[in-house]
Amino acid sequence: MSLITTRTKPLSFSLYQCFANSRGVGYAAVSVWFGLMFSGPIPEAAALPTADEVLQELHLSNSDREDIRKGKIVNWTASEGSDRELAIGMALLVKSKPHKLIAMFREATAYKKVPGVTAHGRIPGDGTLADFARVKLKPNGEKEARRYLEAEPGEDLNLDEKEMAAFVALKSAGKNGAVPVAEVETLIRQTLLSRYQAYRNKGLAGITPYERTQGRRLLASDELSLSLKQLKLIAKYLPSAHDTVVNYPAAKIKEGKQIEEQFHWLNIDIFGRPLYVLSHRTLFQVGEAYLVIDRHYYATHDYNSMLQATVALPTADGLLIVYIGRVSTGQVAGFTSAALHPVSRAIMSPYIKDMLEALQAEAQKQ
């Protein structure tokens, strides 16, 4: 039978540093989350694809593929589904057998506090308001509360029509112009709980739109769908896992597959503003291959959605680790997009590369 489990301890996320500022200069947010636990021998080399066969799916240059075969970390510009999407890819070939990397990957899963993340929590089961009790308007609580009370369609906050109406009604009920920070916090918790429950029950179809100016709406579900379509490597080598991700929660895990999943909320300080994020992380084991998917299906401002995938594929040449990160943000769309995309990718790269370099160094010691 398939195995569906839920961890009792938080799975780690090395969360990103920062995002785009109000003038549209892109600081892209990135997290790398490894939940890989290897066991058992690698199948016979004759039954495995070569690293080069897998890398050809990424359309890398001959020189990049050669560098990866030599054990170098290579990053490249992954294809992007729209001018709102920023994408980065990295790959590393580890010569050690998977079971030798157990300690290293477990170390990577240990939660470590990173600058900017002021609070986080796990959301079990159907979720309750109590699960969001530590969601606070920090930093600059009164200033941020006023943003919510004055919410209107636009890029300043990612809210749907009903959510905005609730905050406006709270403002109307106030007295003497006071800013009811505690009441705004309560409404934010309700918003996060409602969005979590809708996503958990209906997947992407449960995500309500962000109201923009001039009657426009942005659907984070559409942004995530575009990102999922770009995961062609995973669709080819791990089709059942890819199908489960694309059709969540309707798709069922097939026999012989394992999945672990967790839901989190995050509070991140972005340039003095609290950013609330809802994250869905899943770990798949398919034979000797592993796949980690992290979906940010809701963010309160600065970006629309994020999809990150880390896949570990045994090959005849060793363990090939490929990371793809995709973030959708209106901050890089439009006429400045072509200029800002390379800048944002350059900022994203170091955080991912630091992690892979640590992995590479540990593997070389073995």
CATH first level:
Alpha Beta
Number of beta strands: 11
Order of helical and strand elements: EHHEEHEHHHEEHHHEEEEEH
The number of helices is: 10
Shape: elongated
Helix content: 25-40%
Spatial extent as radius of gyration:
21 Å
Average of the residue pLDDT scores: 76
Low-confidence stretches: 1-46, 105-111
Strand content: 15-25%
CATH superfamily: START domain
Number of domains: 1
Give the arrangement of secondary structure elements:
Layout: E1 3-5, H1 51-55, H2 62-69, E2 74-76, E3 85-94, H3 102-109, E4 117-122, H4 141-149, H5 161-172, H6 181-202, E5 210-211, E6 217-218, H7 220-229, H8 232-237, H9 239-246, E7 257-270, E8 273-286, E9 289-299, E10 305-315, E11 318-328, H10 337-365
Parallel strand pairs: 1-7
Antiparallel strand pairs: 2-3, 3-11, 4-7, 5-6, 7-8, 8-9, 9-10, 10-11
Keywords:
alpha+beta, elongated, disordered N terminus, 32% helix, nine-stranded mixed beta sheet, two-stranded antiparallel ribbon, 366 residues, single chain
Question: What does this molecule look like?
Answer:
This protein is an alpha+beta fold and 366 residues long. It has one domain (3-135, 220-365): 2-Layer Sandwich (Alpha-D-Glucose-1,6-Bisphosphate, Chain A, domain 4). Helices cover 32% and strands 24% of the residues. The strands form 2 sheets. Strands 1, 2, 3, 4, 7, 8, 9, 10 and 11 form a 9-stranded mixed sheet that branches. Strands 5-6 form a two-stranded antiparallel sheet. It is elongated.
